From TrEMBL:
The keyword Lipoprotein does not apply. The keyword Nucleotide-binding applies. Transmembrane segments: none annotated. Keywords: Hydrolase, Nuclease, Nucleotide-binding, Phosphoprotein, Toxin-antitoxin system. It holds the Pfam family HepT-like. GO terms for cellular component: toxin-antitoxin complex. It comes from the Bacteria. InterPro entries: HepT-like, HepT_RNase_toxin. One of its GO terms (molecular function) is hydrolase activity. This is DUF86 domain-containing protein.
């Protein structure tokens, strides 16, 4: 049985929505980098286990070199690095 075209169109639309949501995450990555850039320099040196320079550098890359950004790097940052960073930051806040 052949599926109705609307089924495939829905798959395409859902994928577009997921891509849009992913792109919104890039904006959040920019906020993360900007906020890290505003942290007190003494605080940054007291917590060398957190890759502050990389976090700030990602923001600069996203803002200034957007068309040269490797989406695989953004993906890895969102799926690997940020989940590792989250508990470190939570412990600093507590």
């Amino acid at each position: 049985m052949i599926k109705d075209n609307s089924v495939y169109l829905k798959h395409i639309l859902e994928s577009i929505i997921h891509i849009e949501q992913f792109l919104e995450e890039i904006d959040h990555s920019e906020v993360i980098g900007e906020a890290a850039n505003q942290l007190n320099k003494t605080f940054l040196t007291q917590h060398p286990d957190i890759p502050w320079e990389n976090i700030i550098g990602m923001r600069h890359k996203l803002i200034h070199d957007y068309f040269e950004v490797k989406m695989e790097l953004v993906w890895d940052t969102c799926t690997i690095d940020l989940p590792r960073l989250k508990p470190q930051l939570e412990s600093l806040i507590q």
